[in-house]
Amino acid sequence: MVKSEGRATDVTPGGGAADGTDRQDRLLTLTELTERAGITVRTVRFYTSKGLLPPPIRRGRSGYYSPQHVARLELVQELQNHGFTLSAIERYVAGIPDDASPEDIALARTMLAPWQSDLPVEMDHEQLETRAGRPLSEEDVATLQALGVVRPRGATYLVAGNQLSIGVRLLELGFPREVAVAAAAIYQEHGVQMAKELADVVAHQLAPLYGDMQSARFREVMERLKPLSVGGLVTAYETAVARAVAGAAGRE
Q: What order of strands is seen across the sheet that includes strand 150-153?
């Protein structure tokens, strides 16, 4: 579960670092948090009562929210957008360590996909082998990682359970790690370029329609657009692969 208190000795509420430099980890007031997330005060308090968010960090009689609060709140919203029930979200969030950094929580978000029917599960190596139904060498795990099926989290793994059987079957078919790594590099390279181009479209064509990129309406549009964007990418990928295969077959 989440901690009831936090430490932010190097930040000042509503500002940058204590030394006056601009920092991304400044504390937010409740009003700032609700405006950033596009939710109500009542929702924040409800999430806190359910253990989905830690209580605010106290500074005198006021409460403030850290980047860890923001990251957890964004994760909860992401899970809701994927259609998971509140009880399922509670179970998943409860498995995140109390001292998880915003980067750790962001990793949990990367394991979610619009088509998933279950949540990533944290497993140690023995549990991973049990779920896979076979022993897994270091090379096997590295291949599963390159395929995006598992992600290391300290001494454990975050596992996309509904994709594990696919990854294990690829291992049984002798799928080489080198190909998985090469494919991942291609996804990364083209993903970065595509993200830059889409960011340009969003910044110059979409954001001006909503006035402020931090507005609740704009943030909701971006969240709603995400699964449709992924679907569009999948369709484009399938079409391109089919054409490439047909072209290669025609040249033989």
A: 121-123, 156-159, 150-153
Token pair belonging to 252: 């033989």
At residue 49, the pLDDT reads 92
CA 24 to chain CA centroid, nearest Å: 19
pLDDT of amino acid 112: 64
Mean predicted confidence (pLDDT) in 177-189: 89
- Every domain of the chain and the residues it spans: 1-113, 120-207, 210-252
Which pairing describes strands 121-123 and 57-59: parallel, antiparallel, or unpaired?
unpaired
In this structure, what token pair is assigned to residue 65? Answer: 């929210």
HEC-encoded secondary structure of 162-174 = HHHHHHHHHHHCC
Q: Which of 108, 100, 94, 4 is nearest to 57 (CA)?
A: 4
Whether 204 shows a pLDDT value over 80: the answer reads yes
pLDDT at 64: 93
> Quick one: which H or E segment has residue 152?
strand 150-153
Query: 1-113 and 120-207 share one CATH topology?
Result: yes
123-154 per-residue burial string, b: 16 or more CB within 10 A, e: under 16: beeeebeebbeeebeeebbebbbbbbbbbebe
Strand partners, 57: 64
Please determine, for residue 44, whether its predicted confidence score (pLDDT) is greater than 70: yes
CATH of domain 1-113: 1.10.1660.10
Taking a C-beta distance cutoff of 8 angstroms, is the pair 230, 116 a contact?
A: no
One of 3.40.50, 1.10.1660, 2.60.40, 1.20.120 is the CATH number of 120-207, namely 1.10.1660
Is the pLDDT higher at 214 or at 218?
218
**Alpha carbons within 13 A on the beta-carbon side of 204:** 6
Whether the predicted pLDDT of 56 surpasses 90:
yes
